[in-house]
Amino acid sequence: MRVFIVYAHPSEDSFTKEVRDSFIAGLESAGHRYVLSDLYKMNFKTDMSEDEYLREAYYRRELSLPADVIAEQEKINSSDAIAFISPLFWSDAPAKLVGWFDRVWTYGFAYGENRAMKQLEKGLVILSAGNTMEYFHQTGIYGALEKVMLYDRLFDRVKEKELIILDATSREKEQREQNWKPHLERVFRAGQKIGM
Ligand SMILES: Cc1cc2nc3c(=O)[nH]c(=O)nc-3n(C[C@H](O)[C@H](O)[C@H](O)COP(=O)(O)O)c2cc1C
User: Fold this and answer.
1) Which residue among 41, 50, 104, 190 is least packed, with the fewest CB closer than 10 Å?
2) What is the structure's pLDDT at 180?
3) Predicted structure pTM score
4) 124: domain range?
């Protein structure tokens, strides 16, 4: 299986970078191939131009798309699965990744009639987070993330969807280091069993 990884973290000195590497190690151990978009490293532009906005607002499918958007769409259509890996920022994906959806999920590709986007077999959303799962359930944030990430952004664009939150990993938490190991093992296995 070929997996497109959309990765968004501003620093290599991070737990999320370890998550990315464990996931890739899991993929490779099972013989999967992958292509990576490292959005901060690519300096991926995440705010829409006026032309891009007007194309979406008026459903002008015939208008051309920027080369960087086409390149991302080609990575999607040449893959079988997609995995998003990022930290949780203010109870959402980082603006870098949210802006990727704004620009890459275009009319005629990700929505509208006769969409050009291939339906992917699997969509995985992996978010690292400072808070605990208990907190996310108590506050309803878990449900909100599930709705927005899986049922809106991924929707029927993928057949099988999964949200993985790797919790309690912020630096102020004493147990941060202990929390890393099971989380990294979990994403390694998620990479290994993707598509099974
Ligand atoms: C700007 C910013 C906003 C954040 N917002 C949240 C949040 O809403 N909920 C949460 O659990 N953690 C939040 N965090 C913590 C990150 O998710 C944390 O960085 C993550 O657990 C992984 O650590 P890493 O940065 O070493 O990869 C935030 C961190 C930053 C820098």
Assistant:
1) 50
2) 85
3) 0.96
4) 2-192
38 pLDDT band (50/70/90 cuts)? very high
Give 16 Cα–ligand 1 centroid separation in angstroms: 10
Whether residue 173 is predicted with pLDDT greater than 60 in this model: the reply is no
Q: Which value, in Å, is the radius of gyration of the alpha carbons in the chain?
A: 17
Q: How many separate domains does the chain show?
A: 1
Q: Dig out the tokens for 126 from the structure.
A: 């992996």
Kindly state if the Cβ of 179 falls inside 6 Å of ligand 1: no
Tell me, in angstroms, the distance from the centre of ligand 1 to residue 169's CA: 8
